């Protein structure tokens, strides 16, 4: 797009004392005549672009127009680049690379692309995740309904929604939208969502109620779990809930008291500790774990 190219040219001019028209033409894969028209467009927009003829000539922006690099510090730019590269792990890399290129185009750039922080938001099934995110983004831009099969604890259901946001939260990706089948706002985990398709039907965006914008409220942890753990799994508790998540009993056990949302998830998590965890409350979870252990034992007889 012309606008993207104009922004790219302006960024290069601001980052370099002087560049040549052939270099810009090769960089943006257009003709020198197109670059000439782009330079004219920048001038008409009020950008003081100067051209120099002859040997050592080229194109530059008047010195007085150079941006003050203190507008963004090196740390701030590094944070932006780390975030962009994280999005690139699950998005169209070509667009991300173009943006990164504008921020750090060469050795004289403000900040290097060699980052001390690496963010990878992809899952094992990165290809499917990327396709889902790109299709949902398109649906949001074009205000098109989407439909999909959704797998959950009760089985499978088919849903039609008006998509509004793609969200990364609670270590997973979700789509947030208005469910036409339930007539309410819903979050759907992308890992459970399959056969995603665009519908021909479009929608007029609704006003999202303020309380629905608090995505944490969609998964309230108002149920209480109390359990004892062996000291050998201390690191796992710290990894999941932080350094001071437990108290030590006189017997040396680790007592954990937390709120939880999803009963099936917390049971699976507790079963992963084997005999190194014992549920004190609620009793129904303790009973379910006992029954599960009996079933496992029976399966291996």
How far apart the termini lie comes to 66 Å
**Total DSSP helices:** 9
* CA gyration radius, whole angstroms: 27 Å
Low-confidence stretches: 105-113
Mean pLDDT across all residues, rounded? 81
In total, the number of strands is 11
Structural class: alpha+beta
In the sheet with the most strands, the strands line up as: 6-5-4-3-7
Helices and strands, in order, run as HHHEEHHHEEEEEEHEEHEH
Question: What oligomeric assembly is this protein in?
Answer: single chain
Strand-residue proportion: 25-35%
Outline, from the CA principal axes?
Answer: elongated
Largest sheet: 5 strands, antiparallel
Amount of helix: 25-40%
Please outline the helices and strands.
Layout: H1 2-15, H2 21-28, H3 32-44, E1 49-52, E2 58-61, H4 74-88, H5 93-103, H6 126-142, E3 144-152, E4 155-169, E5 172-179, E6 184-189, E7 193-202, E8 223-229, H7 234-241, E9 246-248, E10 254-260, H8 263-271, E11 277-281, H9 283-299
Antiparallel strand pairs: 1-2, 3-4, 3-7, 4-5, 5-6, 8-10, 8-11, 9-10
Helix pairs in contact: 1-3, 2-3, 4-5
